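Quick note —
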Amino acid sequence: MSLSVHTDATAGLAGLRRSRQKARLRLVTLLLSLVAAGVGLTLMTGPTMTPPGDVLRVLAGQDVPGAGFSVLELRLPRAVLSILAGMSFGLGGVIFQTLLRNPLASPDIIGISAGASAAAVFAIVILGWSGMAVSVAAVLAGILVALLIYGLAWRDGVSGARLILIGIGLSAMLDSMIAYVLSRAPAWSLQDALRWLTGSVNGATLAEAVPVFVALVLLGGPLIWRRDTLEALRLGDDAAAALGVPLGWAKLGAVLAAVGLIAVATAVSGPIAFVAFLSGPIAKRIAGPGRSPLLAAALIGALLVLLGDYAGQHLLPGRYPVGVVTGALGAPYLIYLIIRSHRNGAD
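Predicted structure written out below.
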């Protein structure tokens, strides 16, 4: 009798595991299909429309008069950078939100993006740097600010609320520094700094997308592969320790990987507003409870940047960088989240 019960329970668990795997596969397939549709729209749409057949022939290496340059040199790099930067922002954001168990724990909010932005503006306006030098400065500053926030928040462990408050304070200081530097900027460097701060994939090249791809593979790949560790950390320190997770090293490694993803993407595309902030909550809602949101958040980030850039270029009156569109989407959600958190606290 007991053997039969044990067999039934094992079969039930195996069936539940297969059901979850199928649901995860359906979700990933749906998101990949939407990303592919966004890429198709980007490659076809411009000052002149390119038929889908011509786009496919160009991508296959055929010479299509009037379409080759616009598809390969202008639209394809834009789509590739949108996908890679969006995945980096989405994955980095959801890691912070998962580790700290707080939807406000986004690089947009806690100062990491502000650190990279402050370094880039200082390099452009004060030092007169451009290109790769600005990108390197932004990456290093983002990592240093993250380590500073983590160190200041450490008191026998890292409290999510303490880290967020320290990050918000540092972000305000860095934003003030950015405003001061911009107020003293000459006209020729002011435009470059403002364009970088807005967050844009205008003028993207495939060469610019390479470091984002490398960071996504080297930093994002292991995070998705070890997603069970992150899910254990989300349950709380006691539960994670009971499951055998080395808390200190696991948290530090995840934070450094997330910071690296955010910093590299910001260095190339600028701080595209609220993609990291929005991707995680959307992924958790559509993935459902008990399922890792990491891959879904990465794909949603890619979708947000792709569609935000498309809307800014083709659907709105005038042309706007993608950061303007995503900022307009994210700001109302941030207000809603703060109001909801306040009500829950009051209750």
